[in-house]
Amino acid sequence: MRAPVLRKVIDKILFICQNTGVYNTHHYCSQVKLSEPRWKVEKQKTLNLSPEEKKAKYDKMSVVTVDMVDPWNNYVIRNSTVEKRKHTLDDVTEFNKFKIDNHQNRSLAEKVSLYKGDITRLELGAIVNAANSMLKAGGGVDGAIHRAAGPHLQEECDTLGGCPTGEAKITGGYNLPSQYVIHTVGPQDASPAMLKKCYENSLAFHKSHKITTIAFPCISTGIYGFPNRLAAHIALRTTRQFLEQNDRMERVIFCTFMPVDVEIYETLMQMYFPVHDWNYADDARTEV
């Protein structure tokens, strides 16, 4: 049935209902939404869940809440080997590209976390997807997020018209514990500027969607071939800069899977989010 004809049928039904008192117009309109795509209905339904309803929905899943993830200052205490990791002279050169506000070190060490686990199990405001420019389900973390979220995620992605490199677009989380999924497309040419934009544009949803907790995978370091260590510097530097200017962000979590990334983040987070008074950029603490 064509849209104009369908509209006339609905108008006629509403006219009859109004004049017979059978239905309240507002009530009927809330029930008849023939033009709404299924993904939009499910998205709104999920976003409107109460805390109790969320708990019931995810009760059988191994959901990880933000309070179950150690902030960085606690992580260092619980993992005694972390402080044995030494940065390199190249790390110091990269670190010195941005001057941190040392007065915020203590507070910001409580706002970042290193998490070794499945990003799809995190119950947060948003998780970030390392997407492709067509926003089609792919491999790696992209495929894992789509599988866990269910088919409505792809349906919504199909309405967004793709996503250019460095940009970010947001969708509902659907079957994921997190409210939203932020899709960002990392560079395939190892461009530091474009990777920086990925993090900046993803974090920008903090204000527009009131997101106070967010998790990042290692963007572009998989099949896109971005050097892991430089990617971590960019992720940590950009996040540090953002947190210094946005005190309402409660937690930024860096999800790592490969052992090499765990080691890199454990090393570099000591520089960007120091938990001690000494300066981690001191060459005396550098491994040559």
UniProtKB/TrEMBL annotation:
SUPFAM superfamilies xref list: Macro domain-like
A Pfam family assignment: Macro
One of the GO BP terms on file: DNA damage response
Source taxon at top rank: Eukaryota
GO cellular component, one term: nucleoplasm
Alphabetical list of PROSITE patterns matching this protein: MACRO (PS51154)
Domain Macro: 99-273
Annotated protein name in UniProt: Macro domain-containing protein
Species in which this protein is naturally found: Spodoptera littoralis (Egyptian cotton leafworm)
